[in-house]
Amino acid sequence: MKNTFIDFQLFAFPEPKNQAKNWQGEGKSNMLVLHDSEHKLEEEDEVFLQNILQAVKIGPLADQVFLASCTATKTLPLAQLAREHQIESILLFGSNPKWAGIQAQLPYYSFTRLGDLSLLRAHSLGQIRQERAANKNENAGALWNALKAKFL
Predict the structure, then answer these.
(1) What is the dihedral of CA 141, 41, 82, 61, to 10 degrees?
(2) Nearest to 105 by CA among 94, 119, 90
(3) Of 139, 6, 11, nearest to 87 (Cα)?
(4) Domains (ranges, CATH) in the chain?
(5) Would you state the torsion angle of the CA atoms of residues 117, 125, 56, 148, taken in this order, to the nearest 10 degrees?
(6) Which of 76, 117, 138, 147 has the least CB density, counted as fewest CB within 10 Å?
(7) 29-54 pLDDT tens trace
């Protein structure tokens, strides 16, 4: 008899639909950024993301990360794609972990280790950017602290 701590799958494996073609970027830092926009990120959100990652020495955005949309209607077979593209870190901005096939509770603004992956769940880039513009820096500060602890 096998004794295991976890008795359920951490990753669901939806059928791949060649999602990698919808990705942007080269992923040289082995990082995947998932966002909850149906298509491409709004320009303001992309600039905001670029500034956040450059602050922790990850940039330029197009060279260093894979960027993909992940919504309730546009899911990803994350476990398979992570293996195929040697992804080590995943930032989920506004995306529900279940949309990426992750069957685990992820806290906000804290890196969580699942196997070989390090995952960070955050509110959407648009929400964090708008809150920061209104001088409400709680989520932006929590994001900065998590990224700083991991990458600096």
Answers:
(1) -70
(2) 119
(3) 11
(4) 22-151 (3.40.470.10)
(5) -70
(6) 138
(7) 999 999 998 778 899 999 999 999 99
